[in-house]
């Protein structure tokens, strides 16, 4: 299999990305690059990935900017002020996000952040040509090839590659058609070796700034367009089981039951109660209010209308900015689960299925983003990210910062994902002012 980029819309009729309207038109153009006719579906190392890279490169080149694809399939663009003596050795600030999507995706998750980065580089390039004004560092934009992990099951492959944390074992991961990641890299003209060599550990950038839709309802509830991200929550996930005794729903007296669902239900409410108490400040011993905990799945056995549930299989997802506090909350919940199980005569066991530590945003970059937001006339507002982002992997390479942009009703990973042109214009102005704030601090 070879990758055909003929589906690339080149510049899709957009000369270059200068305004919010251009950026939104470019989001529409990338949304048309999908393997499905009924929705957006753009996965790592596919013809659609190649086409999205080619289209993004065309917009960068149309603005007179250098663009290239790295060994992991991430697409880059660069603007270097003429005042910097050696282009390749110049310090650089990287702006970025991802160009891949989940199946049946919205058109802004990731993509908007990349294209706002392209617009910011275009702004500084044009301003330098017009006024000769530069920056004390080069600017780069990156469109990561894989953030969502929808093809091979492992997430953040593109950002792990540049952070130097590409794992050779990943090449054995297979997609739903049985194609390995190693084979997909080869078909894309790359290899495991080239992906590993995309690492920037030898020459780390001075920082990474990511613009992203919030994917949650907080900014909208606050009636604010923009927010400074304080950090990305660390998550732990568990497969949880309560096992009791299935029995006849008509003949077993209530006092003699070992109902697994009732135990699971009581514990699910305990999970909600603890997380609510922490979020509303009722737990003085847990001052990080970012804690969220969710029981998202519940499967009953045997699952019949006239049978007492004998087993309940649940999931638990628990996240917070403070890993230690999250783990204390988790311990408390597991203790409660054992108590509930004992009282109800059922057994409880759980197994961890995922663990990732929280990532704190850099204070200097947060201050720059605050200044960027203030420059748009909005009071700075800080909030944590409960969702994972490329900045998590990039934090192992350099300091990271993030600017969140309000999205309608917090909807994401869905075709109904929506932003307003006015908010995108504010985000672009805030990004440009944030970059200037980083430059002001850098020059001091
Ligand atoms: Zn995203």
From TrEMBL:
<comment type="similarity">
    <text>Belongs to the peptidase M20 family.</text>
</comment>
<keyword id="KW-0479">Metal-binding</keyword>
<keyword id="KW-0378">Hydrolase</keyword>
<dbReference type="Pfam" id="PF07687">
    <property type="entry name" value="M20_dimer"/>
</dbReference>
<dbReference type="InterPro" id="IPR036264">
    <property type="entry name" value="Bact_exopeptidase_dim_dom"/>
</dbReference>
<dbReference type="InterPro" id="IPR011650">
    <property type="entry name" value="Peptidase_M20_dimer"/>
</dbReference>
<keyword id="KW-0464">Manganese</keyword>
<dbReference type="InterPro" id="IPR010158">
    <property type="entry name" value="Amidase_Cbmase"/>
</dbReference>
<feature type="domain" description="Peptidase M20 dimerisation">
    <location>
        <begin position="231"/>
        <end position="339"/>
    </location>
</feature>
<protein>
    <submittedName>
        <fullName>Allantoate amidohydrolase</fullName>
    </submittedName>
</protein>
<dbReference type="InterPro" id="IPR002933">
    <property type="entry name" value="Peptidase_M20"/>
</dbReference>
<comment type="subunit">
    <text>Homodimer.</text>
</comment>
<dbReference type="Pfam" id="PF01546">
    <property type="entry name" value="Peptidase_M20"/>
</dbReference>
């Amino acid at each position: 299999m070879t990758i055909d980029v003929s589906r690339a819309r080149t510049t899709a009729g957009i000369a270059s990305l200068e305004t919010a309207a251009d950026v939104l038109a470019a989001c529409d153009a990338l949304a048309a690059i999908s393997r499905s006719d009924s929705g957006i579906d753009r996965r790592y190392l596919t013809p659609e990935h190649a086409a999205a890279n080619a289209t993004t490169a065309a917009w960068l080149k149309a603005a007179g900017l250098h663009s290239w694809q790295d060994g992991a399939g991430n697409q880059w663009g660069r603007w270097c002020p003429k005042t910097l003596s050696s282009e390749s050795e110049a310090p650089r600030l990287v702006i970025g996000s991802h160009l891949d999507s989940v199946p049946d995706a919205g058109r802004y998750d990731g993509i908007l952040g990349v294209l706002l980065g392209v617009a910011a580089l275009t702004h500084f390039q044009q301003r330098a040509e017009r006024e000769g004004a530069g920056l004390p560092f080069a600017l780069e934009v990156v469109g990561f090839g894989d953030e969502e992990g929808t093809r091979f099951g492992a997430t953040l492959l593109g950002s792990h590659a540049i952070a130097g944390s590409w794992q050779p074992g990943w090449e054995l991961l297979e997609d739903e058609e049985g194609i390995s990641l190693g084979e997909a890299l080869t078909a894309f003209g790359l290899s495991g070796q080239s992906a590993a060599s995309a690492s920037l550990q030898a020459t780390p950038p001075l920082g990474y700034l990511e613009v992203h839709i919030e994917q949650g309802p907080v900014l909208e509830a606050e009636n604010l367009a923009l927010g400074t991200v304080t950090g990305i929550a660390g998550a732990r996930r568990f497969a949880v089981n309560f096992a009791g005794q299935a029995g006849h729903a008509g003949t077993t007296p209530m006092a003699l039951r070992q109902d697994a669902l009732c135990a699971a239900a009581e514990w699910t409410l305990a999970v909600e109660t603890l997380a609510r108490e922490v979020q509303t400040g009722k737990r003085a011993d847990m001052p990080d209010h970012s804690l969220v905990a969710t029981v998202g799945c519940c499967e009953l056995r045997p699952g019949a209308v006239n049978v007492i549930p004998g087993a309940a299989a649940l999931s638990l997802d628990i996240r917070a900015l403070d890993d230690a506090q999250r783990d204390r909350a988790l311990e408390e919940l597991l203790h409660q689960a054992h108590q509930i199980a004992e009282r109800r005569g059922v057994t409880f066991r759980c197994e961890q299925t995922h663990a990732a530590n929280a990532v704190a945003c850099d204070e200097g970059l947060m201050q720059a983003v605050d200044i960027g937001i203030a420059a748009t006339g909005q009071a700075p507002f800080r909030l944590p990210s409960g969702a994972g982002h490329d900045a998590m992997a990039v934090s192992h390479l350099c300091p990271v910062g993030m600017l969140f942009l309000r999205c309608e009703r917090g909807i994401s990973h869905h075709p109904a994902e929506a932003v307003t042109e006015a908010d995108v214009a504010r985000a672009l102005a805030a990004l440009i002012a944030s970059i200037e704030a980083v430059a002001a601090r850098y020059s001091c």
